[in-house]
Amino acid sequence: DMCQYILSKITADNFVTEFNRGVFRLIVNRIQSGNDISLTAFSQEFSQEELGYITAYVSTILPETLHKSALDQCLQVLYTEHQRQSVKNPNQMSDDDMLDYFREMGSQKKG
Q1: What is the pLDDT along the chain (111 residues), one digit of tens a residue?
Q2: Nearest Cα to Cα of residue 88 among 99, 97, 79
Q3: Please, are residues 39 and 54 in contact by the beta-carbon 8 Å criterion?
Q4: Burial of 23 from C-beta contacts in 10 A (0-12 / 13-18 / 19+)
């Protein structure tokens, strides 16, 4: 099950923006509850502008061709962006923080 695979890799906290975290949570909740996840099902949850954003994003993905290797590539982009957004100013990092940061970056390159 692709949903379980995704949930084993990420949580809503991996997303950079609150909007994306909210979309992720809603989709996961609807899938786990057995509810419809079509764009029309989200019309009561989001504004027209937000639905437009979601629609534009979804239209760039072809679910029929989504497989684990493509998903893993998308997840890697998500991890990298989250890491980039959460990095402190190097001048404010302790030596231990800096070492942890470089270890994390090294493990991402290897994996």
Answers
A1: 788 888 898 899 988 889 999 999 999 999 999 998 888 888 888 999 999 988 887 777 656 556 788 788 888 888 788 777 766 666 777 777 777 777 776 766 665
A2: 97
A3: yes
A4: buried
Handedness of CA 63, 66, 70, 76 (dihedral sign): positive
Residue with the two structure tokens 């099950």: 1
pTM for the full predicted model:
0.66
> Can you read off the two tokens belonging to residue 90?
């190097």
In angstroms, what CA-CA distances link 25 with 10, 89, 90?
11, 30, 32
- Radius of gyration in angstroms for the set of CA atoms belonging to the chain, rounded to a whole number: 17
Write down how long the chain is: 111
